Amino acid sequence: MKKYSQFKALWAITKASFKAIFSQPSSIFFSFLFPIAFILIFAAFGENKTNPYKVAIDNGSGFNNHLLDSLSSNPLIKIEKYADTASEYADLRKGKLAAVIQLNKLPTSDSVQRFQVVVKSSEASGGAVYQIVKLIDYQALKVELADAKLQREYIIVPEMIPGKKYRSIDFILPGMIGFSVLFATLFGIAFLFFSLREQLVLKRFYASPVSRINILVGIGVSRLFYQIINVVVIILFGHYFMKFTLINGVVTFLEMLLFSLYMLFLLMGAGLIISSIAKNDTMIPLMINIFALPQMLLAGTFFPLDVFPLWMQKLCEMLPLTQFNNALRKISFEGLHFYECWKEIGYLGIWTVVIYLVVFRVMKWE
Questions:
Q1: What is the domain extent for residue 177?
Q2: pTM of this prediction?
Q3: How many domains does the chain have?
Q4: What is the per-residue pLDDT across 129-161, written as a single tens digit (0 to 9) for each?
Q5: Eight-class DSSP state of 99
Q6: Can you tell me the distance from the alpha carbon of 190 to that of 207, in angstroms, rounded to the nearest whole number?
Q7: Residue 302 lies in a domain
Q8: 358 and 324 inside one domain
Q9: Helix or strand holding residue 102 (H, E)
Q10: Residues 254-284: pLDDT tens digits?
């Protein structure tokens, strides 16, 4: 009697599962086009240079003053003109105007003319007044030195050393890869295994000669391979169309794929847990969002962790997506190799062990 081939069964399950993924147009859209659209949007925001502060000169101040002339030539300040004071202060309260500058002549007993510069701002400007005061102070110092015909003691000379230019895409693209693999893998695995269990497909598989591990591996490998294709497309798109940095070329590209596989294996376990404990298919999106949404917002996907308080940064570092994003950025831009990201590998390893221990406890076949 011919022996049953577990390898052929594994190959058949993998191939059928892979074909089923491409039979759904929505999966292609959300896996490929959606992340690319996000990359284009966030990269466009990130490439904008610092916008100048919009300020207005109080109508009573006049414009015939060296300081005001000097401010108008500063690229970080844009002078706005208003026909009346009411509209000027209305925009100031709304935050459309960063400050209103009022110049008052001070009484003096000598021949030297002195001015008081009042910088009026509002809470709607988000604290821009402090930067504006520094700029005015600097411009006033330059004017005073020029009027006194004095030479500055310190000459500031900027000097640039050779280095790789850091573009916004170098931060955004690794985050988009993390965002893509997080949601696509969780939704794909959770809904797939839930529907296979509800339709008794897993039960029939379990009754067949195919080993359980081959069933899981076959379906999981097809999903992992599909997501790796997605990662490849995102990296190549970013590199060739948006100049994303692959500092060591092909080696960096392959190491990013290897780390993505590592993360995908972890997320596949999380998807299996969700599919096993969900009572119905309406609970799956809720459970996925409970696990994934905090990571999307707190893992440095769209903005660096420095914007958070120090205590929150410590919590953010414990999230698996944080470590994944950090590792990809270190590999792609800093030139670190896979094995040098030992901290990230360790964190993800702990998460993987914990998740698969839970999988072995809660995994259901029917």
A1: 6-46+167-362
A2: 0.75
A3: 2
A4: 888 889 888 888 887 877 777 777 777 777 777
A5: E
A6: 22
A7: yes
A8: yes
A9: strand 99-106
A10: 999 999 999 999 999 999 899 888 888 889 9
